[in-house]
Amino acid sequence: MESLTDSEWDALQPAPPLQQSRSYADTMALLGAQVLRGLLNDVPVQMIARRGLRVIHRPPANVHLAPLAQHAGLTVATTTGPGILPLVTARHHAEWDLTPPPEALRKALAPKWRGHLNAAHSVEISEGSDATLGNLLNKDTMQGRARGYRNLGAAFLAVWRGERLILHVSRKDDMLAAMMFLIHGAAASYLIAWTSAEGRRIEAHRAMLWQAALLLRGRGVTRIDLGPVDAGNPGLAGFKLGTGARLVNLGPTGLVLPL
């Protein structure tokens, strides 16, 4: 691959998916991974390498990865296209386009979603600190154990090289709900969220997600990746897609084979 400088990469990937961003690469490098980045047939590609395994999350849709299979080791990619032997079924994410003006974004909300947001107009939202993040991570870890999932861990977030946005709803010292976004270029990822029963009752998450959209848009973010949409969790799927976000097929995770 033809190598690229940081400024060249940023120019080619102004609003990349999280795993294709420079901030992600810098963070993984600090955690001991080898980062490989460059042009593959004139298309920018970033991969993380460890012990002969190259992992490419969400490369550009038009990239032809088969040449990488000619090198020693294995290449695994989350994408569609020729030369991909699927190993894990395709995932779908919700992506929310923030380029329309706020009034258009609000109008695009599903009627039920907008109604719940209207009911949450008095919810007081604050931006969080490192202490808020620590509290959120602890609650998310316990929630993940109960529900059988894992997010990017504290080690990753401790050395994250990009911007982030943390919002929370609290009463006195009691956190009722919180969420965190990582900002990478002109894109952001909705990464961690937690709510108590009281936070759920007052629709804190809808209020925070709407406030986050406005704040991130004001910072130049054009798209929020709201994360996976799973048919097995229709409530969460409806929460994400009710924003007006579009459903994006990321393709399967598969082994890259030579053609």
UniProtKB/TrEMBL annotation:
Keywords of the record: Membrane, Transmembrane, Transmembrane helix
UniProt keyword annotation of Acetylation present: no
Entry-linked SUPFAM superfamilies: Acyl-CoA N-acyltransferases (Nat) (SSF55729)
Keyword Transmembrane helix: yes
Residue ranges of the TM segments: 175-193
Name of protein: GNAT family N-acetyltransferase
Native organism: Gemmobacter lutimaris
